[in-house]
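Researcher: Next entry in the queue.
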Amino acid sequence: MTIYGIKTCSTVNKAKKFLKDNGYEFEFVDLKTTKPSEIEIKSWVEKVGIDVLFNSRSTTYRELKLKELNLDDNGKLEWLCKEPILLKRPVVTFDDKVIVGFKEENYREIFSK
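Model: Structure for this entry, 113 residues:
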């Protein structure tokens, strides 16, 4: 299992705590220091959709003025590959699955042992 996020994100930290508390081991990848490959991002998009992954509410989105570009799905994908900090966080990958974000009730359902 791999969790992609940033160390200072409270949502990422909640997901990490939940998984640790429930006995799961994982690798953490900090998106500020390690970019996922374009192939990884494209595979995530195929599994969950671009709108689930692309964070149009982030500070980075606003700073880059991406709203003004009126991006289509291909444009969003290009930006995710260039600036993976635009990913909604966390992105959790395991067993060929991709989970985006953190809602405790969803995690309880998905990760019940």
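Model: The beta strands are 2-5, 27-30, 91-94, 97-100.
Researcher: Noted, moving on.
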